[in-house]
Write a structure and sequence with these properties.
Blueprint: E1 3-7, E2 17-22, E3 29-30, E4 35-40, E5 45-49, E6 54-59, E7 66-67, E8 72-77, E9 92-94, E10 107-112, E11 122-127, E12 134-135, E13 140-145, E14 150-154, E15 159-164, E16 171-172, E17 177-183, H1 186-189, E18 199-201, H2 219-224, H3 229-237, H4 256-263, H5 310-325, E19 328-336, H6 338-350, H7 360-374, E20 380-383, E21 386-389, E22 395-397, E23 399-401, E24 404-406, E25 409-410, H8 418-433, E26 447-451, E27 470-474, E28 478-482, E29 490-502, H9 508-523
Parallel strand pairs: 10-18, 22-26, 26-27
Antiparallel strand pairs: 1-8, 2-4, 2-7, 3-6, 4-5, 5-9, 6-8, 10-17, 11-13, 11-16, 12-15, 13-14, 15-17, 19-29, 20-21, 22-25, 23-24, 27-29, 28-29
The structure holds oxidized coenzyme A.
Family: Belongs to the 2-oxoacid dehydrogenase family.
GO molecular function: dihydrolipoyllysine-residue acetyltransferase activity
Catalytic activity: N(6)-[(R)-dihydrolipoyl]-L-lysyl-[protein] + acetyl-CoA = N(6)-[(R)-S(8)-acetyldihydrolipoyl]-L-lysyl-[protein] + CoA
């Protein structure tokens, strides 16, 4: 049986690219598309997939060898058993990132434009930093604006800006280098870059989001992890969170063995959750979950595949973390808003000429501030084993947008009038729907209201928007026959309330009291004065 040479396919403009990992050994049976070797240039990591199935007969390269398009990397037997040849497979590039800021390698990290969906050649409209600035992970670095959306690129790592490679007006696409960050010890000395500077794909602009999701791993940490496509694929299949792994490869790169060891609870596994402060994420390891089911849905009927929007991907990661880390409890109640609704209708008549229309939500924001002032632990965040109580009342509201859920924040609600809140809410909701909200318009919230009142439903379980510790979910008001003595009944307009709270911070009795007070303020707004 003759052998077939397997060559490096078209890898674009790259040549003399070092082999950094070999995934197979002589005798292995591989299928078409299985990754064979990983190559890493200073710009990208690429896996070379098998162009066909076969048994590996010999391997012509070793780690460290430099290869280009056409270099023979191994030979397969020419058997037919292992399946048909696939069409010539291209190397799969991925802009891979160094590890999370905590264990980022010391040196220089090139920050690149992350996945920005279908956008290409997007102009840079603003640069928020200058050389020498110290930035924290998630700080916005630059703003890009296409004809459809404005996107901020946040820092994927903490560090000091060493060089800026773009100017306002330059056009960039996914993978374009925007600046260089000195990370780790290099932030002090801005030391020389290591031979191969690690590259960092910035996560897309962080969006404050809430809702309901039950996906696998911490997507934000997964995206930042320094690993190649094959290792990422393996981690996905094993439901392993790459963000939790300390890589043993060059520059801290995560290799296949790290993932396998982690899955077995090996050296890279994080410390037990009990050793961490209450607010620290517990990590995904140790849950001993079954792998996510892989189903060929097309077997059962026609299907269509649609990628999640950028905002949905980010919100999924946030929601999943919040749902897994925070012990949620939801307490339901109802508010009698008969009188408030009459007042609202009257106020809207009076304000008709001003162009401001007031829904129930601005009143709920005022009621929330009253309840938060009475129960300060709801206006707080956990910091390790301490509670940070905030003496400001910035209220977020969930806004349904074509790209997914966003949470704009109205600052200092205690100091604003109801019409002012209504006006600002309308402006922020429009910015959210147009994809133009800036990160600072979604930051600093102390409590969130998620209102489905304009749509319907009775009760639901809102997911807490960490690091906040509670969230009010509201559904559509409805008329109900109410009696105080079981004999006389009256029609009252009832607003259903669903308060989710973090049981590490809040007790059930406090949550019930919060709801009762919130409802009593809505029933009689004069209580705001108390
Ligand atoms: N009961 C009855 N009617 C209500 C109501 C309630 N609780 N809340 C609002 N309404 C009415 C409004 O008065 C308005 O009626 P008119 O058209 O007759 O004036 C209508 O419903 C639509 O209101 P709205 O939704 O435009 O305004 P809002 O201020 O209540 O909400 C906003 C604004 C941005 C929060 C909302 O548009 C939105 O996006 N809601 C979805 C939030 C969401 O998705 N939450 C789920 C998060 S968890 O996954």
């Amino acid at each position: 049986m003759s052998n077939i040479d397997i060559q490096v396919p078209d890898i674009g403009d790259f040549s003399d690219v070092p082999v950094i990992e070999i995934f197979v050994k002589v005798g292995d049976v591989v299928k078409a598309e299985d990754p064979l070797v990983s190559l890493e240039s200073d710009k990208a990591t690429m896996d070379v997939p098998a162009p066909r199935g076969g048994t590996v007969r010999s391997i012509a390269v070793k780690v460290g060898d430099k290869v280009s398009q056409g270099t023979v990397i191994m030979a397969f037997d020419n058997g037919v058993a292992a399946g048909p040849a696939a069409p010539a497979a291209a190397a799969k590039p991925s802009v891979s990132a160094p590890p999370s800021p905590v264990n980022a390698p010391t040196g220089l990290a090139e920050v690149r434009v992350p996945d920005i969906g279908d956008f290409k050649d997007v102009p840079v409209i603003e640069i928020f930093v200058k050389v020498g600035d110290a930035v924290k992970a998630e700080d916005p670095l630059v703003s890009l604006e296409s004809d459809k959306a404005t996107m901020d690129v946040p820092a994927p790592l903490s560090g000091v800006v060493k060089a800026i490679q773009i100017q306002v007006g330059d056009k960039v696409s996914e993978g374009s280098v925007i600046l260089t960050l000195a990370t780790g010890d290099a932030t002090a000395a801005t030391a020389a870059a290591p031979a191969a500077a690690p590259t960092a794909a910035a996560a897309p602009a962080a969006a404050a989001t809430i809702g309901h999701v039950g996906s696998g791993v911490d997507e934000a940490a997964f995206a930042l992890a320094y690993a190649g496509p094959a290792v990422r694929k393996l981690a996905r299949e094993m439901s392993v969170n790459l963000g939790q792994i300390k890589g043993s490869g060059a520059h801290g790169r995560i290799v296949r063995e790290d993932v396998l060891a982690f899955a077995k609870g090996g050296a890279s596994a994080p410390a037990p959750a009990a050793a961490k402060p209450a607010s620290a994420p517990a990590g995904g390891a140790g849950l001993d979950l079954l792998p996510w089911p892989k189903v060929d849905f097309a077997k059962f009927g026609p299907v269509e595949r649609k990628e999640l929007s950028r905002i949905k991907k980010i919100s999924a990661a946030n929601l999943h973390r919040n749902w897994v880390v925070i012990p949620h409890v939801t307490t339901h109640d109802e508010a009698d808003i008969t009188d408030l609704e009459a007042f609202r209708v009257q106020m809207n008549k009076e304000l008709e000429k001003s162009g401001v229309k007031i829904s129930m939500l601005p009143f709920m924001m005022k009621a929330a501030v009253a309840a938060l002032k009475k129960f300060p632990e709801f206006n707080a965040s956990l910091d390790g084993d301490a509670l940070v109580l905030k003496n400001y009342w910035h209220i977020g509201f969930a806004a349904d947008t074509p790209n997914g859920l966003m949470v704009p924040v109205i600052r200092d609600v205690d100091k604003k009038t109801v019409p002012d809140i209504a006006k600002e809410m309308g402006e922020l909701a429009k910015l959210a729907r147009d994809g133009k909200l800036k990160p600072d318009q979604m930051q600093g919230g102390t409590f969130t209201i998620s209102s489905l009142g304009g749509i319907g439903g009775i009760y639901f379980t809102p997911i807490i928007n960490a690091p906040e510790v509670s969230i009010m979910g509201v559904c559509k008001s409805y008329w109900k026959q109410v009696s105080s003595d079981g004999k006389q009944y009256q029609s009252r307009l009832i607003l259903p309330l669903s308060l989710s709270w973090d049981h590490r911070v809040i007790d059930g009795a406090a949550a019930a009291r919060f709801n009762v007070h919130f409802a009593s303020v809505l029933a009689d707004l004069r209580r705001v004065l108390f």
